[in-house]
Design goal:
Length: 608
């Protein structure tokens, strides 16, 4: 049975990633890239759906673990009555095919180790032909997929059966035993066994060099750099695309149906991601994400999608994996995402805001990009009055969501700003009129007198955490009474100090907004947005309290999933979640800026 979501640590090679549990089991690994089928899928089932466990005999969980410095190299330590052993897990940045390397080191005494490897291709559904090639090498093959396990000296001879490979060996103080498991297309030769110590040195050097580029010296620096390492690890290096999370179908409610595939790139995250990377000093990654975005959204604006594959692919059909019981019996297990076909008006504002942020960072506008921006705004001008599924991708009826209209205003506003930068005046008057019309309509129909807050959709009295972004987006200043009222109204979304996305009001057993049964946890990114809004509206002490509260629920290696269950005290949703970590970094910068301004004496105005 899989561990708790927070029991997992991430390793990756910038093209795919794996999750390693506190029990020493790798329970999730998609190959050869993030959005490929998993060959280890026991995270959504059991050991028979693919896993690789390596741990001392009789030990259920480790004594302690942690990343080595500011890297993605994981050290897991077990202490027993007979001795102490450390297992180091990592994936070398891609040189050839994807590969997991595991190094077992004896620290003290003598420890008996046991390993079990079960390979299952196509999300745990395909049992490969597994056979020993020699006393140290095991091959598995089925259809287009193949793996090769290399066992180093001291590992003993693996025992291969029809459904698994096991090995047992002792490790004494000072002894080192290595393993490497690689994937390759079955029609190509397997890569040779790696030099594990050399691969470790290269991997450590890569991550240490990358982390040294961080441009931040404020509070919670360790949390900030860990979040940025996670963001880098969720980047598909060949294209620059950043996926939302490394996993699929981890539930937002245990036993519920809110189980989505997040191994894709969402446009709604684009501005957050770009600004986070730029302000942290990672310009190369920010520009790679910008270039991915421009390539991906090129074409007819009517065809713009909320999400795309890591290479920009558009077809991501949602399917059910009936052979998997789901994480803690949370069904259905979904791969692909039907939200790809939704109409989300907000993404047009996100794209234009991202392009504007890139220009502010010094990226030049060429004719092709300007034509793209103009076409996107023309589309917004024609379709902004239509209801949509909104940022939360509701599977209930379309509505006139306030955040969607605010983002349409952002599209017009950023296009105007870009036109001034580029010296283009052809459509300025029409865009000015559109921007003014959008602001007037949102303030008229999106405001709830009863709640003294911006509402979730026109005519509603319910609030939505996306309204916290209004001052950040520039729609209204932070000191505007309507913004202050909206921030106060967010207390209605609080659950033990964490913020839900919106009011949970159900019609019978089905949620009225998203059309699904069951509740969900508090949304961690929204909780960070709350801290940002508190700081912007003159409540910095409360903002710091909220920020630190979220830091406290990171797991033992500093990772955050999408949501937090305050009642059960556990993480929920896909893991690790890029938006949660991006929001953490952004809030750290906001609070650091607030702190610096508070320490700067106000300038005195000379009196004539």
């Amino acid at each position: 049975m899989a561990g708790r979501i927070e029991d997992y640590a991430l390793i990756g090679d910038l093209e795919t990633a794996a999750l390693v549990g506190r029990n020493g089991s790798v329970d999730w690994w998609c190959v050869p890239r993030f959005d490929s089928p998993a060959c280890f899928a026991s995270l959504l089932g059991d050991g028979g759906h693919g896993h690789w466990k390596l741990a001392p005999v009789g030990n259920r969980v480790c004594s302690r673990r942690g990343y080595r410095g500011d890297t993605l190299v994981l050290d897991t330590v077990w202490e027993s009555l007979t001795g102490t052993v450390r297992v180091t897990d990592f994936m070398p940045p891609r040189q050839g095919g994807p590969r997991i390397v595991r190094i077992v080191e004896g620290i003290a005494g003598r420890v008996d180790m046991r390993g079990e490897l079960t390979v299952r291709f196509d999300h745990g559904s395909v049992v490969p032909w597994t056979h020993a090639l020699d006393a140290r090498t095991v091959a598995s093959v089925a259809g287009p997929d193949a793996t090769r396990l290399h066992c180093g000296p001291g590992a003993g001879e693996p025992v291969v059966t029809a459904d698994r490979t096991t090995f047992a060996f002792p490790v004494a103080a000072g002894q080192c035993v290595t393993f490497a498991l690689g994937w390759h297309p079955s029609h190509t030769p397997a890569p040779p066994a790696p030099d594990a110590p050399a691969a470790l040195d290269r991997t450590l050097a890569f991550w240490n060099d990358w982390a040294a580029g961080l441009r931040y010296e404020g509070p919670a620096r360790e949390a900030v750099i860990r979040s940025l390492v996670v963001l880098k690890a969720l980047t598909y290096e060949p294209t620059g695309g950043v996926i939302a999370a490394a996993t699929a179908s981890l539930p937002e409610c245990i036993g519920g149906r809110r189980n989505w595939d997040y191994r894709f790139c969402w446009l709604r995250d684009s501005t957050f991601t770009l600004s986070c990377l730029l302000r942290s000093g990672y310009r190369r990654e920010a520009l790679a994400w910008h270039d991915w975005l421009v390539r991906t959204v090129a074409g007819d604006p009517a065809d713009l999608q909320p999400l795309y594959g890591v290479a920009g692919q558009r077809r991501l059909p949602e399917t059910y994996a009936d052979w998997l019981p789901g994480y803690e019996n949370s069904r259905p297990v979904r791969f692909g995402n039907a939200a790809v076909g939704q109409f989300q008006l907000d993404i047009y504002g996100e794209v234009l805001n991202t392009l504007y942020s890139a220009v502010r960072a010094g990226v030049a506008i060429d004719g092709q990009v300007w034509s793209l921006m103009a076409a996107l705004l023309e589309y917004v001008d024609k379709h902004w009055r239509e209801p949509d599924e909104g940022i939360w991708e509701v599977r209930g009826p379309r509505r006139q969501f306030v955040h969607s209209k605010v983002m349409a205003w952002v599209a017009a506003d950023r296009a105007l700003r870009l036109a001034r930068v580029a010296g283009l005046r052809t459509s300025v008057r029409r865009w000015q009129a559109l921007r003014a019309e959008l602001r007037d309509e949102v303030c008229r129909f999106g405001w709830s007198e009863e709640r003294q807050s911006f509402a979730q959709y026109y005519g509603s009295r319910r609030v939505d955490a996306t309204a916290l972004l209004i001052p950040r987006l520039g729609f209204l200043p932070a000191h505007d009474p309507r913004v202050l009222g909206t921030v106060r109204a967010m207390a209605g979304l609080e659950d033990r100090g964490f913020l839900r996305r919106y009011d949970e009001v159900s019609n019978g057993e089905v949620h009225e907004i998203d059309g699904l049964a069951g509740a969900e946890g508090a949304f961690l990114a929204c909780t960070f947005w709350y801290a940002d809004a508190l700081a912007a509206t003159g409540r910095p002490a409360e903002a710091r309290t909220v920020f630190e509260r979220v830091l406290d629920v990171r797991n033992d290696v500093g990772l955050l999933a999408e949501e937090w269950d305050p009642a059960q005290g556990r993480q929920l949703g896909n893991m690790p979640q890029a938006l949660s970590h991006v929001a953490l970094v952004d809030t750290a910068f906001v609070l650091d800026g607030t702190r610096r301004r508070a320490r700067t004496p106000a300038r005195r105005t000379a009196v004539a």
